[in-house]
Structures are given as C-alpha cells and as structure tokens.
Amino acid sequence: MWTAAGGRNLDLTLAAAGALLVLVVIFTFRLKRAPPGCVRTATFRLGLGLGLGLAIVALTGYRVAYQGAPPALSIEATGPITLRSRAATDLRPSADGVRYLPVVVETFTDRRGYGGTGRGIATLLWDGQETLLTQDGMARIVPQRGDTLVVRADAASVRSGTVWTDAEDIAVEPAGSAIHAVRRRIRAGIYRRFERLDRRSRALMAALILGDRSGVDPGTYDAVRRSGAAHVLALSGMHLGVLALAVTWVGRRLFSRNVAIIVTLLVLGTYVWVAGWIPSLLRALAMVGVASASRLLGRRESPVVILARAVLLLVVITPTIVYQLGFQYSVLALAGILYLSPGTTAFLGHLVPRAVAVYLGVSLAALIPTAVLSLGVFGTLYPAGIVTAGALSAIVVAIIWTGLLFTAVATVPGVGTVVARVVAALTTLLERVAELGALIPAVSPDRPGGITAALAYGALLVLVTGLVLLLRRNARRRIVERKVAVGEPQLDF
After folding, report:
1. pTM for this one?
2. Would residue 231 count as lying in a domain?
3. CB burial string 361-379: b at 16+ within 10 A, e below
4. Strands 80-87 and 170-173: what pairing?
5. Is residue 324 part of a domain?
6. 230 in helix, strand or coil?
7. Whole-angstrom distance between the N-terminal and C-terminal Cα of the chain?
8. With the C-alpha atoms ordered 439, 444, 450, 451, is the resulting torsion angle positive or negative?
9. pLDDT digits 0-9 by tens, 413-451
C-alpha cells in the first residue's frame, strides 16, 4: 500500500500519473486544428499518443511493483543482523527531523555468523543529525548516492522494507570513485562560501542552492507551507531558470549562439548532478535540453510541446519518476501555467486591473491542476498560495541572485559584508510575507466543517476552470493578434 505523510493513500497519485502521461504524450505530437482533409492524420496522431501514454504507464507500473517489493535475503536470518547496503539517493532532509534514505540491499551477516546476499530496496529511518560517522571513525559526513552503509538492524525489519535504527548503528564507507569525491568536495565548498552569512540566511541559501532544508527554521518552513508556497523552498525549475539566465548571459558574450547553448546545458547538467538529481530539477533540465535541441535544429516549439517531450524523455529513461510527488506537482503546475494562464488572466481581467489579473491568474492556473493531489494526498489545500506564491517566488529569486553574487564576492572586504546584509534583509522579508500568508485559513476535509468547505472549494475550482476554458479561445485570439501586431513569433497553445 502506497502511503504518504498522514497515512493518506497514494492510489490517487498513481491514477494522476497515468492520466498526466496520456495527456502530455498527446501534446507531444503538436495536434493543431486540422483542415477537413487532415482528419485522418489528426486521428492517427491522437491514437498514437494515447497508445504511447498507456504503454509507458504500464511499464512504469511494472517497474514500481518490481522495485517496491520487500527486500529478500538469501538465507533465513534471525535476530539482529549487520547489513551492507548502497545509498540509492542522496540523504534528503525532512521537516519532522526523521532521516529517510533508500538503500539497495547487498550482503548481510546474522548473529550466528551466517552470511548471505540480499536484493531489493529498503528505507533506513533514524532520528538525529544528518551526518553519520565513517567506518574508520575519523569523520562525520552526509551520505550521498553511491556510498556504502553498514547498518546493525533487525532481520524482520529489513524484510518489511522499513528499517528503524539509531544513527550510532550506521557507519558510512564513502564511495571510492573520483567522481563521487569531486561531488562531495564541491558541495562542501559551496557550504563554506555561506559561512559568513547569519544562521537564517545560511540555512536558506543551502535550501535554495543545494536543496538541503535541514537547517531552515521549522517555524519559517511551516509558515511558507501554510501560505501555499512550500515549493519555493524546494529546488525546482524556477531555481534552475535563474542559473540558466546567468550562464546564458555570460555564454552569449563569450561564445557563438550554438556554443553558448551547449555550455549552458553542460553547466546546468553539472549543477543538477551536484544537487542530487531532484525530480523537479530533472524535469526542468529535460525541458532546457529539448528546447536547446530544437533551437540547434532551427525549429521553434510551443512551451507545452517542450514540456510534453521532456516528460516523455524522462519516463523513457527512468519510468518510476512519474510516481514521485515532486515530479507530479512540478509537471502539473507548469502545465497549468502554460495551458490555463491565458484563460485565467482573461477571466480575472474583467474584474481587476491587468497587472493584478496576470499575477493572480498565473497562481490560480498553477493551483487548479495540483489541487486534487493536495487534497487527496495531504488532505489539505492552501488557497493562500493564490495571493502569496507569486510574491514569495519573487523574493526567492532575488535571494538566489543575491546569493550567487555573494558566492563571488564573499571574501572581498566590505563588499561581502554589504551583500550579506542584503541577503539577511531579503530573508527577513520572506519570513514576514510567509507569516502574513499563513493567516489565510487552509481547506481540509478532516477539520470540523472541512468536508463542506472542501466541496465548496472544489465546486469553485470547477466553475473557475469552466469559465477559464470558455474564455481561453478569446484570450488566445487576442494574444496572437497582439503578437502579430508587434511582429513577435506566435505560440502554438
């Protein structure tokens, strides 16, 4: 049984993953309004898109069922065992202080001295700090993908797939390859660059640059979450986009256009590798790769088509990514922004000034497709995100730009101090805006009267979606006319 925080059933996310793939694969084939003589071609493409989507969903389900099976030991081990395993991912921090680390089971020895092999993936859980003692006892390090972990645990817990243990019962053998050592040194060097920042700013920069939220103040994280903008503290396409802009700006002044595109891809790929192959970053990197390939070939593609092809590329390479919540939220939110924001902006444009309509329209377009997941998985929806997500995103972008500047001038006397103070001021601003957003009540069926509120909110979303789709054609026509008038290329929605 797939469960998430709070014991929610994740069957809903599995269904959403399948539906998501089917839809984006259809978009991949650039279905346009076909003339009467092209109906057969459009029907063929539609059928091909559906067939590919269903085939990928089936493959993904098979892979998840195989990899999610409880680990198997080659002999019947009894009592406590010493387990050797390999970290399948980087250690990711959690809001509740519990450390979660998936590991690939390799070998074990039980108390009788019998040894054997094992297979499958188990999840190690422990309370306490994120650093673990190396097996030689000489240092404490943060486990990363590829490291070997020697764990004292109970055989029954290993077979169940969930291993609760103490940090003192885990020892780490760092991966011996040079590439792992380089990656660890890069991460350590980035942390050292932030040492001159105050504690709050240092923790925030670690979260925004490396995805390490372990040092973020729990009150700040909770306020950001309740304001409907928890995604701004998780590495995503927004963060990769800031880096892409900086690298592209430099690359275009040093190289030709095509060489600058290739250099940007290499830099972004290196950053995603250092950050730890986070699903939302992988989605953004795949989109940049697909868009760059189109530009190198001299073709222009719709952002929706680029998103669809990026998703296809990722699920072909690693099908199980489609079942990860972070990936689903990332794709659904971006698809909503690309496909629904013209309609939501046009709808709100009849009620509020255009600048406000654009701001609220984009936030609402991102909330509509992700609302079902939020209610189904976590049982809570934060409407405050419609108002605060854009402001918090803008502040985060400012913090990232300032933080990148700080990494370059941190050791320059005077200048480094001034930039550090700017980062601290932006951190304070982020906290204050989040606290204001957290005052807007959440929608939860589990609270008294929550079911009625959730149904009412759901009905409102359905109504807004219907109006958005009705207005979308008019909004698209006006956007195209405006772009034609100023000579800009048209987007194929």
Report:
1. 0.73
2. no
3. bbbbbbbbbbbbbbbbbbb
4. unpaired
5. no
6. helix
7. 38
8. positive
9. 888 888 889 999 999 999 999 988 888 887 776 554 444
